Amino acid sequence: AQKVTQAQTEISVVEKEDVTLDCVYETRDTTYYLFWYKQPPSGELVFLIRRNSFDEQNEISGRYSWNFQKSTSSFNFTITASQVVDSAVYFCALSEAPYNQGGKLIFGQGTELSVKP
Amino acid sequence: DAGVTQSPTHLIKTRGQQVTLRCSPKSGHDTVSWYQQALGQGPQFIFQYYEEEERQRGNFPDRFSGHQFPNYSSELNVNALLLGDSALYLCASSLYWGNTDTQYFGPGTRLTVL
């Protein structure tokens, strides 16, 4: 069965600190997609990043970066120089086939990030 | 570019009642998925609609049903409401045959069942 685990329930940092959110996934599929979404207090899930299973190249986008390692089934997300506006719940998600047809997303439990001034 | 919209924002019902939630997909999208998010939990997939048909379904009882209209908008219906149906209901849209399966979410409808 497919599963996403976010072991960190809550993280609290001071502004300008770097913070890494952990995500471990389980799947028997060889092709899959991984996502990070942000949910601010307003409730709307905001898409942040998407990665497919055959591209392990890690990238940086502004203050966001991610580390995808198939060998350990991990897809960690890092915010550099955190800001108060980054405070939100962050969800890691795994897309189940059919991938190119908006397959259902399997979400982790979420990590609540609190950035204090 | 209009994003995903949902209505109403909040809803209060009593046990046994029926409720209808509405969703309009992002401009250019043709697929709508519904998720239920209980307090403190990650969203759980309910079902997905494309071409006015239910294409995938999660582990939810038949009390949960849906519909998609020719303009791609969608409704989620829940019958015989239970206290446990209290949650944030999220709608997500995507493009069925697109190059990406990224789903974009609306602001949600918060349902409270008393």
Pick out its properties.
heterodimer, A: about 120 residues, mainly beta, 6-stranded mixed sheet, about 50% strand, B: about 110 residues, 7-stranded mixed sheet, 4-stranded antiparallel sheet, globular
Question: Could you please describe the fold and organization of this structure?
Answer:
By secondary structure, chain A is mainly beta. Chain A has strands at 3-5, 10-14, 19-21, 24-26, 33-39, 46-52, 60-61, 64-69, 74-79, 88-95, 105-107, 111-116. In chain A, the strands form 3 sheets. In chain A, strands 2, 5, 6, 10, 11 and 12 form a 6-stranded mixed beta sheet that branches. A 4-stranded antiparallel beta sheet of chain A has the order 3-9-8-7, with no helix packed on it. The N and C termini of chain A lie far apart (41 Å). Classes of the chains: A mainly beta (117), B mainly beta (114). The interface between A and B is medium-sized, with 26 and 32 residues.
Rg calculated over all Cα atoms of chain A: 14 Å
Report the sheet with the most strands of chain B, covering strand number, pairing sense and barrel closure.
7 strands, mixed
Order of helices and strands of chain B: EEEEEEEEEEE
Shape of chain A: globular
- Average pLDDT of chain A, rounded to a whole number, is 90
What's the helix count of chain B?
0
Helix content of chain A: under 10%
**Largest inter-chain contact set:** A-B, 26 and 32 residues
* β-sheet strand percentage of chain A: over 45%
Element-level helix/strand string of chain A: EEEEEEEEEEEE
State the helicity of chain B in percent bands.
under 10%
